Amino acid sequence: MGDDAGGDPVGNTSVFPPPPKTYEVFTEENVLWLQVLQAELDRSGQRESFRSMAPEDRRALQTQLLQDASDRDLDGTDDASKKERDVVLPDIDLIELMPPDISWIEQDGGYQLFGQRWPIPEATPTLEQLGIPRMFPPEPFDHAEALRTLLRTMLFTYYQLTNDLLQPIQPYEASGGGSVPTAASATESQQLFNSNATEEKQQENLEAAPVADGVADVTTTRLRDHLQHLETTVINFQYLMNQLRPVQASASLEMLLEEQVKRREEQTKALRDKCESIRDAIGKLSF
Prior knowledge:
- Its main location: nucleus.
- InterPro entries: Med7/Med21-like, Mediatior_Med7, Mediatior_Med7_sf.
- By secondary structure, the protein is mainly alpha-helical.
- Helices cover about 60% and strands about 5% of the residues.
- It has a two-stranded antiparallel sheet.
- The longest helix has about 40 residues, at about 245-285.
- It starts with about 25 loop residues before the first helix and ends with a helix.
């Protein structure tokens, strides 16, 4: 907390928002009152309808039930004892302390959390549902081979993308139609990018050289296609990797158990060797 130049408090500058104030009502006293309320609702048979009531009606019923329970608890005591045990009813809606009804969540088929809807049971969308082309065969297929194929596709696409990015700008004859370089243009290209020329001279030649219409558009389209293909390949690769997560977890657990067994065997062998050495030492003792 601090003050700015105008003297106004800056406020909470934390990256994460503060926790909701709901936790402040979870006191021991309120939890005990909740237990009393639930017992009274069961006694009166209004437990199911209590949640669906309007907030004002629910608060009124809550106060009435808690007051009745308090009066029954004080029955048989004198006025002085009642005055000493003056009961203060909670001023909050105790329904806030009740856990959510799981059956409602199951009937609704999911729940909202942090602005996202989580279905029950949890379902992973397919590539077709996401609108992404599928780059591996349908089930059943060898996942390892499919991953290797996608990896080779990614590497080759990346190679093509890098190759296009590293291509120098090719000058063309203005009258050549902008599609096929002529022999003269090839000679001019060698002159333009002569390694013996200075950098300033090469830049001047490059700016003065005519470039065919549409060459930049074709190059941009090809680069965009490479990027799109690379992105699709990566998504397919990640999708297959996610399908193998259970297999990975099982293999990791198996490897962990094997390491534990191996370590236990080594400790057992060391203990037996130590016992054997102690027996030998005892046998060599002369009494």
